[in-house]
Amino acid sequence: MDVYLPIANLAVNGLIIIGLGALTGVLSGLFGVGGGFLTTPLLIFYGVPPTVAAASAASTVTGASVSGVFAHGQRGGVDYQMGGVLVAGGVLGTGIGAVLFSILQRLGQIDTAINLLYVLMLGSIGSLMAKESIETMLAARRGVAPPARKRRHHPLVALLPLRWRFYRSGLYISPLAPLLLGVVGGILTMLLGIGGGFIMVPAMLYILGMSANVVVGTSLFQILFVTIATTLMHALTTHAVDLVLGFLLLVGSVSGAQLGARIGQIASPVTLRLILALIVLAVGLRMALGLTWQPGDIFTVTVL
């Protein structure tokens, strides 16, 4: 079933795109993280231009986040005050990311920059996840319980002025900390088309020291509005959002997420984290090889 993508200027097999969306949806439901960080690389591997892949993946993450926000909000799992600060920072970061995207596009380096950022991010995050999972599994085999983590914000956060009370998160910190964190998330969302949950959730836990029962819901709340801003920014500035591609991905991800959630209920969390880490490292390695492989057809541009 061939489908023409008007913005990507490419004819693709619609079933394969739906399958890619379903795969990322399964990962989202299975591992409890957004699949956006794998959607863009998989689309690039399939032949979709990196700029279109990043812009269209952001719109898919928006649709996938809506149901999650409602579910967590109904059980009181969203800190709307903290989420509002993160959204403000994210929207600001989206504007900064749009400027960086435009500059890199004019320099002709945006595709290389997207690939390089993914290699660095997936490599570092995958390594940390694999290390933590292996240590936990070895400790369980030896019958030693891993030490419980004390919930406390990073020492640098304590140095920031103008403290607020975030009652739902159980914090008394400066709003500048989540604002800056939101800025970083907005820039990454604009450049890479990711929801940012796999970066924001650990940062909210280990840097801000938020309560674990509101982290996921608050992260989804931030992702929802920042990806909306990112999609609008891409539509107005880069014109790289392919609605046909986004719709096909959304169809697959919605159904895949339900399947992943069911599988996740019966699987070991530690084993799942290790599998996810290996998948992330494999995708990062494939992208790194793509930056170094010599292409089959080499073109040279000369000025006459």
How is this structure best described in words?
The protein has a two-stranded antiparallel sheet with strand order 1-2. Strands 3-4 form a two-stranded antiparallel ribbon. The protein starts with a strand and ends in a 12-residue tail after the last helix. The protein is mostly helical. Strand 3 (164-166) and strand 4 (171-173) form a beta hairpin. 72% of the residues lie in helices and 5% in strands. The longest helix has 33 residues, at 110-142. The protein has helices spanning 14-31, 36-46, 50-74, 80-107, 110-142, 155-158, 176-192, 197-206, 212-238, 243-264, 269-292, and strands spanning 2-5, 10-13, 164-166, 171-173. The model has no long low-confidence stretch (mean pLDDT 76). Helix 2 (36-46) runs antiparallel to helix 3, helix 3 (50-74) packs across helix 10 (243-264) and helix 5 (110-142) runs antiparallel to helix 11. The protein has one domain (2-292).
